[in-house]
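Worked Example 4.2. Consider the chain below.
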Amino acid sequence: MKRFITALIFTIAFANVAFAQLPEPGFVIDGNTAIVITDPQVDFLSPNGVTWGVVGKSVTDNNTVANLEKVFQMAQQKNIEVFVSPHYYYPHDHQWKFEGVLETLMHNIKMFDRKDPLSLDGFDKSGADFMPQYKKYIANAVVTSPHKVYGPDTNDLILQLRKRGIDKVILAGMSANLCVESHMRELLEQGFEVAIVSDATAAAILPGMNAYDAAMVNFKMMASKVMTTAQLATELNK
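Applying the procedure from the previous section yields the following structure tokens:
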């Protein structure tokens, strides 16, 4: 038993030392840097949204709504291009023959639903609409075609970034372990440098399952830099 406890302590200590020694590549903000925000929409960020029961605590604890607005504001003040990658489902998307767990849930609760890809009928103030305080900033942003699962593999985000000479991305939005993480992974695979704004995102918290904490582990292991909104402001003011 003593040997087991000693081995366990050694393993934990080694893991903590190894994690503490993870390098930070750093992230230099320059003229080829853009901000990408995923799903800044009512269904994720408002008490009126269909997911508030599971994401509300994380959104509130992180002050995500206000922090995202600060990110928009800083981008405007520093003349940094903003790209918004939204999530929409149209009637034809509900005819898919198979889905993953959360795809099934999103379809069942009519998350991000729009009546028609060629019409804005019923869009204003719906769950698919952007949060009202962000609209004045999004009016000047590049709004990509919608992604359909979690990542930018199914939209034109990477094309839009490449066409504007962007090779560095500051990433924020919803939700941390799904769309934000999937965007981070694909952007990294496509050769972009990626930084994450840790308190301008949030995720579901379920019994025995904290999706925000899960995302933070992967962010810290994969992104070039993980920073808070305040730290981003400091970087931009250098």
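Strands lie at 33-38, 82-85, 142-143, 168-173, 193-197, 205-206, 209-210, 225-227. The chain has a mean pLDDT of 93. Compare this with Example 4.1 before moving on.
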